[in-house]
Amino acid sequence: MKTCLIVLLCLVPYLLSAVLVANLSERSCIQTDFDSRLILAENDSTFCLYHWNYSPNDQQLSLKRLHANGTQDDEMIIYDFGGSYQHELDLYVSGSVMMIFEGTVGLACLKVNGETVQAYHLPWGTQDGPQTGYMYYNIGNSLLFLGPNVDYDYCLWQWNYETGVCSLIYNSLGLFGDVHLSVFGNRPVLSGYRTSHNQWDPMPVVIFDEDFNPVIQYSDKSLGRSGYQFDEQTCYADWYQQADSNNNGIVYLHENTLEYFTWAGTGSMDPWTEGYYPMFKLPNNIHAVKYGHGGMSGAHTSYHLYEHLGPGNVVPYNALPNLNTYPDTLRFVGKMHNRLLTIGKGSGPYIFRLADIQTSQWAEFSQNQWTPQEEVVRSANAYNTDDYVLYKIQSWDMEENIIQRFYFLKVEQSVSNDDPINPPVVLNAYPNPFKDRIRISTKDSPQPQPLDIYNLRGQKVKSLAPAADGYEWDGRDEQGKPVSAGIYFARNPHSKSAIKLVKLQP
Questions:
Q1: Can you tell me the mean pLDDT for 482-499?
Q2: Cα angle, residue 116 at apex, residues 114 and 122 outer, rounded to 5°
Q3: What was the pLDDT predicted at 457?
Q4: Buried b (16+ CB within 10 A) or exposed e, 201-223
Q5: Domains delineated in the chain
Q6: What value does the mean pLDDT of the chain take?
């Protein structure tokens, strides 16, 4: 039985009418000692390397471009702060990066696109403005952040950097001993922060609507900074509980209530930590997520896929087999032409793989292995566009000086028909998603053939006989029992034609 399940699961990537093929090749290698703090793609074949000083004194922002043809541009200073500023974080806004720097005299926000810089400044220390700031979020053309007023009350501020107007949204007036800010869509949430693991009293929580009207509640959970947003009501975050633990997972803002769904957690005395880190979105509301675990026995990293089914509902996605088990430990995952790129590295070469999420199909590579010229690697980091992977590798020379090289690796993709003489039958389904019944029709079918329904585990749940106008499935298995809500595949057993079906709760 177990062998049959494995065989059926392995069939899932081939429920398609065409084969995804790919090829990997090294196109160029560039050596430079430019100390990059941030690397971003400017276009498909050019990467921008940005540098700022760790020391805030005489802060400058520098740029160096690397090109896939093996050329590099001269380093250029694209912004001079004219004073002391410390880099805080980067926010990504409409194709640009918003770099936020804090100084003793104010806040500097740089909207950067290539070498183009639009700078905005907010002074600290005015009578009716913030004295400093922390925990920044971008909403439209504004930054939401926390900071004390002249009386040192914790306050929520909104700074429209386009107009220069900074407005007081909320003064806590001593409600919080310490406070964290989260944002769900356009709705901020303030949560008291548990500064002591032995503090058991309920913590204040202030939930705002989109017009910034507050509702004050109390909770045994202390919400930290919200992170990756699945939708305007659902994000990934961490929080403390009275049970003396630090948890992380999904937080769902439903009307004026926060609902928590734990994915990972550790107690304050545990000699290990763990957490999930959502990374990017793929087609069909599938999201790539990194898992990290560290402890006395060492560190472990793996990558997973999750499906976003709606507000507050994010579940594991298992339709793509062998994500972590083959061929080596994964070092990097990325998105190329809306497909999932994985790079593994064991004791041998780097192994590249590519998967089409919409069809659960792994690409067939003519060449998928790569070995850099460095024998001993100090560090390795990857970045990618739709066609190129940029690998930054640092090593040492004989005098233990750091050598830094950037490799441009081209990943070429194409789709080939597996049978151009007898192309597979095209399947269509309506309504999809469905609750009770779904009709499946065929196009250009040479003769009526049965249609099999499979679940995500690769198990066949139903075989449908053809009718004059196609097929109809009532959402039941071979025993006549209703199947559970979820994702299914309808497949013609005599070809590679398939279609994804989504069954909803009745």
A1: 76
A2: 120
A3: 65
A4: eebbbbbbeeeeebeeeebebbb
A5: 25-123+372-416 (no CATH), 426-503 (2.60.40.3080)
A6: 86
Give the pLDDT confidence score for residue 200 in this predicted structure.
66
Contacts of 468 (CB under 8 A, 6+ apart): none
pLDDT of 273-329, one tens digit each? 788 999 999 999 999 999 988 776 677 888 999 999 999 999 999 888 778 765 558
Q: Phi and psi dihedrals of 3, rounded to 5?
A: -65, -40
CA max distance for the chain: 81
Cis ω on the peptide bond leading into residue 130 (within 30° of 0)?
no
Take residue 231 and report the two structure tokens written for it. Answer: 């939708």
d(CA 128, CA 114) in angstroms, rounded, equals 36
Question: Are the CB atoms for 402 and 393 separated by under 8 Å?
Answer: no
Three-state DSSP at 168 gives strand
Amino acid identity for residue 435 in this structure: K
Q: What is the pLDDT of residue 317?
A: 92
pTM greater than 0.85 (yes/no)? no
CA distance 312 to 51: 38
* Residue 476 DSSP symbol: B
490 in Cβ contact with 425 (< 8 Å): no
Please provide residue 384's backbone torsions phi and psi, each rounded to the nearest 5 degrees. Answer: -150, 155
Q: Which of 97, 96, 121 is nearest to 109 (CA)?
A: 121
What span, in angstroms and rounded, lies between the C-alpha atoms of 212 and 214? 6
SS3 state at 3: helix
Tokens 């920044």 appear where?
136
User: Which of these, 317, 290, 294, lies nearest to 302 by C-alpha position?
Assistant: 290
Residue 252 contacts residue 233 (beta carbons within 8 Å) = yes
